[in-house]
């Protein structure tokens, strides 16, 4: 069973579903019929970040402020690998001030290929939410053999 460290390179994401919008209610006087009310949704650029979880270890990326659905991080993370580790869970969230962060989507990456081959170059993984595709994230993995 692999032991040692797992190095993760969080590169970027694209095509993420925008969860950051504001609702505005507008009422206007309309001739003889009185008032007309409209509800408008205005989309803003998201501030995405990533939570990486390997068994009980969790690490958080920086927030890609205002980068919307095409964020770039180019950040490195390291996890200690022990017996029973088989996957890396990746959750993407939108940082919100004054309210709970929005869940954008997630992906589970099996680690067996990196344990067997030693590394996986940055690869695009499908991000899903409620079993629906909502973008992709690029992640590279490295596991030094015998370490």
Offer a concise description of the structure:
This protein has one helix at residues 112-117; strands spanning 4-14, 21-30, 34-43, 48-54, 57-60, 72-81, 87-94, 102-110, 119-129, 132-142. With 147 residues, the chain is mainly β. It comes from Hibiscus syriacus (Rose of Sharon).
Description of the structure:
It is a single chain. With 147 residues, the protein is mainly beta. The chain has one domain (4-21, 40-142): Immunoglobulin-like, CATH 2.60.40. The chain has one helix and ten strands, in the order ββββββββαββ. The strands form three sheets. It has a four-stranded antiparallel sheet with strand order 6-1-10-9. A hairpin with a 3-residue loop joins β2 and β3. Keywords: Calcium, Membrane, Metal-binding, Transmembrane, Transmembrane helix. GO terms for molecular function: metal ion binding.
């Amino acid at each position: 069973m692999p032991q040692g460290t797992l190095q993760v390179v969080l590169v970027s994401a694209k095509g993420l579903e925008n969860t950051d919008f504001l609702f505005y209610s507008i009422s206007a006087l309309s001739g003889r019929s009185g008032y007309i009310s409209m509800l408008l949704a205005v989309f803003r650029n998201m501030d995405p970040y990533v939570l990486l979880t390997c068994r009980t270890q969790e690490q958080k990326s920086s927030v890609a402020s205002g980068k919307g659905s095409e964020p770039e991080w180019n950040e490195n993370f390291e996890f200690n690998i022990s017996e029973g580790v088989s996957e890396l869970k990746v959750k993407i969230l939108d940082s919100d001030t004054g309210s709970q962060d929005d869940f954008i989507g997630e992906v589970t990456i099996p680690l067996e290929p990196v344990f067997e081959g030693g590394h996986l170059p940055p690869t695009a993984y499908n991000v899903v939410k409620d079993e629906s595709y909502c973008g992709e994230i690029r992640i590279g993995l490295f596991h030094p053999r015998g370490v």
